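Backbones bend. To wit:
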Amino acid sequence: MPEENATSSADLPLGDFVKRTFDSLLVAARIYQLGDIASIFGLVVTIFGFLFTLVGVWKSKSAAEAAELAAQNVEEELRQMNAIQGLSLAIKSLEEIKALHRLPAWTVLPSRYTSLKLDLIAIRGRAPNLTESQKASIQGVITQLSTIEGQVESKLAGSDAPGAAQLNEVVSEQIEKIAVVLVELQAEVERIGQ
């Protein structure tokens, strides 16, 4: 005959079964020092959680830095494209000035020279990657326009008229200088885009 204390877990009421199971777990925890193991496991989980957090912070910082760099690159490219557009318009303005020399439309020319010089000064100051040579070329064009403007102003004040062919030769040289800078900037933008 089996002992009365040796009952199976199926014969015990649910409350007694839970109590005996919990008591058995507590005894096992004391014997096998499961509290220490759980503490060590908790520490390991905490360390890994902290490391994952650091990696997440690092990744978000890297992403923010990459976004900032991309924004700066876009801004620089926009300035470069504005310089290209401005130089293209300057060449067009110089061609119009040559046509006005041929007419001769002396009275409208001084304001055209001034407007073009101001545009070139702005381009020279705002374009981010102009080399010293390119800046010098633009400055040379500005200087030549000032010289031509002085000659036209003298003509308007009663002096002999400057020769249109001579003025247009100088203007053509300035167009070539601006065209060189324009092509160099376009090549740089294409290189950056690749």
About this structure: Residues 50 and 56 are 10 Å apart (CA to CA). The two ends are 91 Å apart (CA to CA).
